[in-house]
Amino acid sequence: MSSITLKSLSKHFGTLRAVDNLDLDVPHGSFTALLGPSGCGKTTTMNMISGLEQPTTGEVYFDERAMSGVETGRRNVGFVFQNYAIFTHMTVAENLGFGLQSQRRRERVSKEEIDRRVKEVAETVGLSSALDRGAARLSVNDLQKVALGRAMIMRPTIFLLDEPFSNLDSAFRAYMRAELKRIQHDVGQTMVYVTHDQVEAMGMADRIAVMDRGELQQYGSPDDLYERPANTFVARFIGSVLNNFLPVRYADGGLAVGEGRVELGDRRAAFESRATASDLTATIRPERVRVVDPGDASATIRAVVTLVEPLGPKDVVHLEHDGTALRVALPPSERPAIGAALGLCFDPDQVHVFDDSTGLAVR
Amino acid sequence: MARIRLVNVTKRYGSVSAMDDVTLDIADGEFFAILGPPGAGKTTTLRTILGLEKPDAGQVLLDDDDVTAMWPGDRDIAIVFQNLALYPDKTVYGNLAFPLRQRKLPKQEIDERVRRAAKVLKIEPLLDRKPAKLSGGERQRVAIGRAIVRDPRAYLFDEPLSALDALLRLEMRSELKYLQRDLNRTLVYVTHDQVEAMSMADRIAVLRDGAVQQVATPEDVYHRPVNRFVATTIGSPPMNFLPATARLENGSVIVENPSFSVRSLRPVALEEGAPCWIGVRPEDVHVGGDGASIDATVFVTEPLGGETVVDLHLGERVVKAVAPPTVRFAADEAVRIRFDPRRLHIFDAAGDALASAAGEPIFELTGS
Amino acid sequence: MKKTLRITAIAIYAVVFGFPLYWVTTMAIKPKAEENPPGITLWKPQDPTIKNFKDILGLSKTSDSAFATAKDYSALTPLKNSFLAAGGGTLLALAVGVFAAYGIARFRAGGAQLPFQILQLRMFPPAAVVIPLYFMFIYLKLWNTLPGLILIYGAVTFPFVVWLMRSFFQDVPREISEAAIVDGCTQWGAFFKAVLPQVKGGLAATGLFVFILNWSDYLIVLVMTQDKWTTAPLFLSTLSGGAGGQEYGHQAALAVLLILPPAILGLSIQKYLVRGLTFGAIKR
C-alpha cells in the first residue's frame, strides 16, 4: 500500500506537452481517477507512474521515495488493461496463479500458498465457480475478472487500470463498476484509474483529477467537481447531461441573464472586486433548473422547446433562449410539445459563474 | 419517399446466423434505431438493406420494389460506416464531391451542394484539409457530409458516435437529431448505446444474436419490455431481477421472494410453484422514506452528480437503486427500501414478460 | 563494453558491404595498365581515366586491347535490351499481379489455397525449369526474342507481386471500396479511384523490387538469349572470358552502370518506398 505524489511532472514530446507541470497527491488506499478526453495526458501520466515512460522533468514518489531510476518491474505495480493478456491454453486457476508461479523461487511461495491465494482472489472477483474452466471458453465479462484477479494476486503496492471496462456491454459494466469499487474498499489497495467516461470516474473514485491537454483542471471528490467546478472545462465535462452555459453580465449585486436576473446576495463581493469587467458565463445544471409556466413571475427567463429526448425515467428537454441552447430535465409525464414556451427558474445557489477570459470560476 | 422493409431475412456465415429471420418495417421519414450488443447482427442488417450483403433467404423492399438483387449504388441510399471510410488521398472537398462527380453532375451544382453540406455540418473551414489532419469529431462530420450531398432517399448510420469521447458524443447526439429532422428522410441508426437509441429514435428494434426481440417506441421498450434481454438492454443502470416463486391464492397470483411478495390484481399465466422473476428498475427502488419496509444493506454508493446509485444487498442478491444526489450511505449500513408497485414487471423462468405495470396499479406489494 | 562491440560490428559490416562498391568504382576509372599490376595492388587509381566508360558506351574509336576492336566493348545494345526486358517484365508482372492480388485480398478469389499455390510457383529454383522452358520457347519461336524474355520475366516475378500487393490491399479497409460503390462506382471504378490510391507506396516498393530482380537476372538470359537479345549482366560475364582476357576495368565500368538504374529509380520513388516497405508488414 502506498501513496503516490507527483511533483511538477512533465512529459514533452518535442514541442508537444503531453503532461504539463502536474502536481498530484494520491493518498494511500484511495481510489483516484484520471479523467479527461483523449489526448489529455492521462495515459501518459499513468505510464510515468508505472515507469513505462520517463518524465521529462519532475518526479514521481511512492511514499516519499523517488521513483526515477526504478524500473517498472521493481515498482510493484499491478496493471489491468483493456486487452488483458489472458493465456487461452490455461484454466482460470492457472491464469490467476501465473504470476506467482513464475516468481515461485524468488518469492519462496509454496504450492499450497499459491493455491490458497488463487482461491482467495477468485472469491474476491467472483470466479470461484469457474476455477477449472479453460480460459478460451470464458465470456468477455469473465475474462475481465481474470485480468483483475491476476493483477490482484501479486499484491501490488499500487493498481493501475486503463479503461479496463470499455470492451464490456453496458449492463455488465455497471455491475463491474460497483464490484470494483467494493473490492477496492475491502482490500484497501491504492488504485489509479484512467478513463474518459465521467460516469465511471464519478461512480467509483474517491478523488478525480480532471485533465485537459496535459494540464490538471481540478482535483477533488465527485461532489467537489459536480457542485463546485473550478473552471468551464470541468463544468462542461462532468455530468451525464450537457451543462447549460449562458452569457451573463454583472449588474448591481446580481447577474443579468437574458431578460431576467439572478440575485447574488453575499457573493457579490467576488464580483465587485474584479479588476477587469470581462465577460462572464454562468452555468446551471439541467437537473437543477426549476421549470414553471412561462407566465410565472418567478421565472428567470423564458425559452422555447426545440427537442425532447426521452431517456426513460426522465426527459431531457432542449430549449432555445436568445440564441443559446439550454437543457432541462423533466419527468415524462410533463413532456412539453416542440415549440412550447417554458419558464425557467434559476436558483442563485445553483448558478456558477466563470470569467470568460480565464475560464475560471468567480468566487 | 423511402419505406424500408426487410421480410424474413436470414444471413448465415458458416454455421452462425448473423441475421435470423429478421422482419422490419421502417416507415418513411422515421428515425429508426437498431440496438443490440456487439455481434447482434446490427451491422449485417444495415449492410443488407444497402445491398453490400446478399441475404440467404428473405427479401429487401424499398417502397414497394423488391431490391434484394439490386446493385448497392443504384438503391439511392447513403451510409456512414462505423470506421467512416473517408478517402484518405482526397481533401474534405474531394470526399464530399466524389459521389456527385460519379453521377456526373455539372461542376456548378457539385460546388453548391458541397458547400451547403459543409455549412450545415460546420466544416467549411476544413474543405482543403485531408482526413489525416482532422480530429475524430471533424472526420465524423465529413463522413456525414458525404452522405448528405447525395440527398438520398434514406440514410444508414453505423454506430457513428461510438469512436468519440463521452463528452463529444453527448454534444453530437442532439445535433444528429436536429439534422435528421431537417433532412426529413428515413434514418436507420445502428448503435449499442441505449441512451442514443432512446433519446433519438422514433422506434427502436432490439436485436440479439441476429433475432429481433422487440420493435417499439422508446416508451414501450422502457415500460413494456417483452423479455429480460430487452429489459436489461434498455435503461441505465440496468433493471434488477429478483427471483420469486408463484403461489395461487383465492384466484389471484402471488409471486414470493424471500424478502417481499407481489400480488397481481390481474391474471398472470403462472402455475403453482412456478419459478419466475420480478423486475424493477433502479429508479423505481426507493431507499428510505414513507412506506419503506424491506430490509437491505448498502453495498456501495456511486455518486454520479445528478443522482446517486446505491447498490444494496437484498438477501444474497445485489439490487441497484437510484437516490437523490445529496444522499450518502456508509458501506454495510442497514436501510429500508421500497419498490414502486406501479413499475414492476413479472417475467417467467425463460425470461419472457408476463405482466408489466407500466404505471398502472395492477400489483400490490406485501411484506414477506 | 556493449557499445564498443556494437561499433565494431557496424564497422565490419560497413567494410564488408562497402568494399565491393569501392573496388568497383575505383577499378572502373583505372587505365588498363593498373588493372592487375605486378607487385602491390594500389586501390586508389594513380591515373584515373574514363576510357572504360567510353568503351562500354561505344564512344571510343580505338581499344586498348590488341585482340578486340572498340566496338566489341560497347554495351549499348545489351543495356538497351536490359531496360526493355526488365522494364517490360516488371510492367507485365505488375499488370497481372496487381489485379490478381486485389481479387485474392478482397474477394478471396481462388479460395484459401490460391495465394500459396501462386507462391509455390516461385519455390521452384529457376534452374530446375529453365531447361524445359528452353525447349518450349524454341518450339513456340519465342527463344531469343524480346516478347519471350518479357513473358518469362513477368511470369517469374508475378508471384512476388501477388504476395506483396495482397498484403497491401488487405490493409485497405473494405469499407473504402464499399463507400465508393455506394457513391456510384462500379467495382472497377472503386478499385481505381478509391483503393489503388491507397496502395501507391506498396505499388512503388513492389515495382522496384521486381525491377531489380529482373534487371539483375543472369540465368534466364544465359539460356534464353544469344547475341541479339543478350542483356547487360550476361554481356558483363563475356567481358571476363573474351579475347582480351580479364577486363577488370570494363567489367567494373559496366557494373557501375548496371547499379545506376535501380538506384535512380529507388531514389525517385523514395517517398513512396519507405512507407511502402513497412506499411504492408503489419497484419491487423
Give the SSE map.
The complex is a heterotrimer of chains A (363), B (368) and C (284).
Chain A: E1 4-13, E2 16-26, E3 31-35, H1 42-50, E4 57-62, E5 65-66, E6 77-81, H2 92-102, H3 104-107, H4 111-125, H5 140-152, E7 158-162, H6 170-187, E8 190-195, H7 198-204, E9 207-212, E10 215-220, H8 222-227, H9 232-237, E11 244-251, E12 254-257, E13 260-263, H10 268-272, E14 280-284, E15 290-292, E16 301-310, E17 315-321, E18 324-330, E19 341-345, E20 352-355
Parallel strand pairs in A: 3-8, 3-9, 6-7, 7-8
Antiparallel strand pairs in A: 1-2, 1-4, 4-5, 9-10, 11-12, 11-14, 12-13, 14-20, 15-19, 16-17, 16-19, 17-18
Helix pairs in contact in A: 2-4, 2-5, 4-5
Chain B: E1 4-13, E2 16-26, E3 31-35, H1 42-50, E4 57-62, E5 65-66, E6 77-80, H2 92-102, H3 107-120, H4 136-148, E7 154-158, H5 166-183, E8 186-191, H6 194-200, E9 203-208, E10 211-216, H7 218-223, H8 228-233, E11 240-249, E12 252-257, E13 260-264, E14 275-280, E15 285-287, E16 294-303, E17 308-314, E18 317-323, E19 334-339, E20 344-348, E21 353-356, E22 363-367
Parallel strand pairs in B: 3-8, 3-9, 6-7, 7-8
Antiparallel strand pairs in B: 1-2, 1-4, 4-5, 9-10, 11-12, 11-14, 12-13, 13-22, 14-20, 15-19, 16-17, 16-19, 17-18, 20-21
Chain C: H1 2-28, H2 32-35, H3 51-56, H4 70-73, H5 76-107, H6 114-123, H7 126-139, H8 146-170, H9 174-182, H10 187-195, H11 200-215, H12 219-224, H13 232-241, H14 248-268, H15 270-279
